[in-house]
Amino acid sequence: MKTNSLELVHNHRPGGAGATERDYLDYVIDGRLLSERIAGDFVTSLGWGDAAEQARAVRRLLLDEPADVPNDRRSLYVCPECGDLGCGALSAVIENVNNQIVWRDFGYQNDYEDIVRLDDYRNIGPFVFEAAVYERVIRGAM
Q1: Distance in angstroms (rounded) separating the CA atoms of residues 60 and 83
Q2: What does the pLDDT read at residue 24?
Q3: How many CB atoms neighbour CB 61 within 10 A?
Q4: CA distance 2 to 138
Q5: Short-list 73, 78, 53, CA closest to 63
Q6: Which alpha helices (DSSP H) does the chain contain, by range?
Q7: How confident is the model at residue 103 (pLDDT cuts 50, 70, 90)?
Q8: Per-residue pLDDT tens over the stretch 55-94
Q9: H helix or E strand, kind and range, residue 127
Q10: Tens digits of residue pLDDT in 12-22
Q11: Across all residues in the chain, what is the average pLDDT?
């Protein structure tokens, strides 16, 4: 399986017209911002907000904490205003397969329905990361 590169970079969501300005960490996969590939107004859970939630988000991405949305899926992008999963999130299945971390089956969902809307995200991923590199990058968010 071809492996992808992963890094985190600072990104900025402009404010105005009722939108909150937000600085956050964004995923760069193979040199391209993941946020440029997705539809909607989202930010990652990394680099802003409550420190305890930051730690939980990192542990979820490292598979050290249970998934935060139904169907054993993990949020990658959340509401930029409040981070609440009830507003909707871009999620993926994240799994460790033979010491490689795989992000697959991207979709839109919330935390109160079992429905995952996959259609708009079928052309995204899967992405495969070497586990040691992935862990170092994700832990770097703290």
Answers
A1: 15
A2: 96
A3: 25
A4: 20
A5: 73
A6: 51-61, 131-139
A7: very high
A8: 999 999 999 999 999 889 999 999 998 888 889 999 999 9
A9: strand 127-130
A10: 998 888 888 99
A11: 93
Strand partners, 24: 11
Say which residue the tokens 């586990």 belong to: 131
The answer to whether the beta carbons of residues 47 and 39 sit under 8 Å apart is no
Token pair 């609440």: residue: 84
| Nearest to 43, CA basis, from 57, 55, 62 | 57
pTM above 0.85, yes or no: yes
Residue with tokens 């598979």: 63
Q: What does the block give as tokens for 41?
A: 């107004």
The token duo for 67 is: 């998934």
CA distances to 9, 30, 67, 94, 124 from 35, rounded to whole Å, are: 11, 13, 21, 17, 11
Task: Tell the residue number behind the tokens 């440029």, with chain if given.
Answer: 36
